[in-house]
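Here is one chain, start to finish.
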Amino acid sequence: MTEDGLIAPRRTPASKSPLARRPGVRALAAQATRDSILRAATKVFARYGFAGGSVEKISKAAKSYDRMIYYYFGSKEGLFIAVLEDIYRRMDESEAAIELDLARPVEALTEIIRFVLGYYRKNPDFVALLNTENLHRGRHIAKSLRAREYSSRAITLIGELLASGVAQGLFRPDVDARDLYLLIASTGYFYTSNRHTLSAFLGEPLETAERVRHWEEFVVETVLRTVDVGFPEELSPPNEASTWQKSRTAQSQARSSSGT
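Its structure:
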């Protein structure tokens, strides 16, 4: 009511524009475009490499425009570096999601080994992109300021597991976390990246479920033997070959006798 006794007219709230009702719409759209380009670039670079992965192919795969790649990433190289950072980030996040009990270091280390080998196997684009970057001697990832963050977290985690194992009298105190990280990563990466040529070279398919399972168990045993507090004094005697070694010897003898 006004001062003169009249009823004041009801004020109708001003209608909000769609942008006002949905704050951040433009930012979300921009992020969606950037993510779409990043996903497309991952596939294109994995298939064609850095040299063959043209801006035109990427923009077409992303259903976007060339200029948007330059707008969000600055250059083709900037986009490739972003792709490399993204694949490392995704692996890091997947690894962080594993529930590990540091109080049980043997089991936790086994889980990490199985995760790494499985991740390489399930993500062929990851391996292909690393192959491409290694052909370029790592000159693109060297320009990244974020890549080392992901590797440092993985090494820190392994270091914590080693410390727990040492405290419990299970692991050797002289094993370096970085060395163990390289051992695990190399056994997973090499087997996956070279599986086709190795299959032809060795004359047996390495991608069968049986071969993959065997390699995983072999790597787990190898790594655990490496960190075991009894290594190297308590290694199995040379004449006590493993079941797999015995089977391989028998197969080799059979091939020799058949002339193959």
